[in-house]
Specification:
Blueprint lengths: L6 H40 L2 H34 L2 H35 L6 H30 L4 E3 L5 E3 L4 H4 L4 H30 L4 H35 L1 H8 L11 E8 L4 E8 L2 H7 L20 H30 L7 H9 L3 H17 L2 E3 L3 E2 L9 H31 L27 E2 L2 E2 L1
Antiparallel strand pairs: 1-2, 3-4, 5-6, 7-8
Helix pairs in contact: 1-2, 1-4, 1-6, 1-12, 1-13, 2-3, 2-7, 2-13, 3-4, 4-6, 6-7, 6-11, 6-12, 7-8, 7-10, 8-10, 8-12, 10-12
């Protein structure tokens, strides 16, 4: 019988499971909040009801996704105390304030205006309602800002010192901590990925309804807006990804070695390995399909530039190459397909066939979940590629875990898996059911809610005559 997994491995699996499940929801809400703001702004500017129909269609989906994102995110914060208590103790003086800023600025901003956005269309003026929508969109951006600052500091720590208890504390200005070396690149790359995720989700839903009724004007508008975003942002994302990769090469070269599959150093130009099977035991890529010197050209902009390999790194400091190698290729491959679909939509638009080419609509429908898969692959590349470090180069993952017994972690992991798939699986199915319905002319607005608490009691239904009920 194989040995039972140790507590460290189980804790890592548990956090990976919960964070992967969680990030699917913010990846949608970040882009969808901005999309709703654009729809409402265009409605206010043009008066076209189609924009408001789409706003009402997507705000119901946004509310569900937002709620599931909040609930799934709360669980992760508890794991810092249960499974990663040593990390929390040592990094808390830096990680804690940054996460508190996220709650005080982003979450409170979202929570404060979300009710107005969801239920205030009939109760406040158009300007105030639009302001609420903008504030929710701003809140999603600020939430991403602070969370990515925390994670980026763990990737490229800066502005810290160690106190007598071995804790990481701020040394001087907090700006060096917040705006650490990788943060700007990771922020724009992640935000653009969220916008692309939303664009392809919206485009896929629009394509679904065009395949059923190509004359539906709201489906046409939905699909057209999504394809504009794909055509513009997908090529930009490739450029941003390249800049992020160059920054990673500078600060985390071992991660790039694993991404590229470079077990050996290449003093006269490294090949770009397109596909292959990483063989960590033998230190090579089996059955490699590669292009000579192209990796050096991409990473160093010089065909003959030398690139170091994993043979220069102690085995204990190497990440799991197979996972990083393939997750990186999934992310890049999907990014190229996104850019190709955006280019195809431009051709269809130029030919006046954007709403007629059925193959384009089927392609867009197949690509609907591509953004979600790509952001997961990107996060796997980032987080697994950082191993074996929790704080890169300073604190190992093995030294960060709580002193728990493996069965205790295994029990909570099993509970998480069952509850997550039951609760969030049901929520996702309901969202898909909403998406399957076409956006209607004069899409129903938010449901009416009681004007006062007394309206919910049976006494409010009683008729009175001279003060006496009858």
């Amino acid at each position: 019988m194989p040995d039972f997994p140790d507590a460290l491995l189980l804790a890592r699996i548990q956090f990976a499971f919960t964070v992967s499940f969680h990030f699917l929801f913010p990846a949608v809400t970040i882009g969808l909040a901005s999309y709703l703001a654009v729809l409402e702004g265009l409605w206010l500017k043009t008066g076209r009801e189609h924009y408001m129909d789409l706003f009402r269609y997507w705000i119901k989906i946004f509310a569900l996704v937002f709620g599931m994102g909040v609930v799934s995110g709360i669980v992760m914060s508890y794991q810092f105390g249960t499974n990663w208590a040593v990390f929390s103790d040592r990094a808390g003086p830096i990680i804690g304030p940054l996460m508190a800023y996220e709650v005080l600025t982003a979450f409170f901003l979202e929570a404060g205006f979300l009710g107005v956005m969801l239920f205030g269309m009939r109760r406040v003026g158009k300007g105030l309602h639009f302001t609420a929508t903008l504030m929710v969109a701003l809140g999603t951006f600020m939430s991403a800002f602070w969370i990515l600052s925390v994670n980026s500091w763990m990737q490229t720590p800066a502005g810290y010192a160690l106190n007598a208890n071995g804790q990481f504390i701020a040394a001087g200005s907090w700006l060096a901590i917040v705006f650490n070396p990788s943060f700007p690149y990771r922020l724009v790359h992640t935000l653009s990925a969220a916008y692309l995720t939303t664009a392809f989700l919206v485009g896929g839903v629009g394509a679904w309804h065009l395949l059923k009724d190509r004359e539906n004007p709201r489906a046409r508008l939905m699909f057209s807006m999504a394809m504009w975003m794909a055509a513009i942002v997908a090529p930009l994302q490739i450029v941003l990804g390249d800049l992020h990769g160059l920054n990673t090469l500078q600060h985390q070269p071992v991660k790039v070695m694993a991404m590229e599959g470079h077990f050996d150093s290449h003093p006269e130009g490294a090949p770009l390995i397109l596909f292959g099977i990483p063989n960590s035991a033998e230190g090579r890529i089996d059955h490699a399909l590669q292009i000579p010197k192209l990796s050096s050209l991409i990473l160093k902009h010089d065909l003959d530039a030398p690139l170091a390999g994993l043979d220069t790194v102690p085995a204990a400091d190497r990440p799991p190459v197979g996972i990083v190698f393939w997750s990186f290729r999934i992310m890049v491959g999907l990014g190229l397909l996104m850019a190709a679909l955006g280019a195809a939509s431009l051709l269809a638009r130029w030919r006046g066939r954007l709403y007629d080419w059925r193959w384009l609509h089927r392609w867009a429908l197949l690509m609907a979940p591509s953004g979600l898969v790509a952001v997961l692959a990107g996060w796997i590349t980032t987080e697994v590629g950082r191993q074996p470090w929790t704080i890169h180069g300073l604190m190992r993952t093995a030294d960060s875990v709580s002193p728990l017994a493996a069965p205790a972690v295994a029990a909570s992991l099993v509970a998480f898996v069952i509850v997550y798939f039951a609760v969030f699986g049901t929520g996702v199915l309901y969202i898909l059911k909403l998406m399957a319905k076409p956006p209607l002319l004069h899409e129903p607005a938010e449901p009416r809610i009681p004007e006062r608490a007394a309206g919910t009691t049976p006494a409010a239904a009683l008729q009175t005559d001279g003060g006496a009920p009858r």
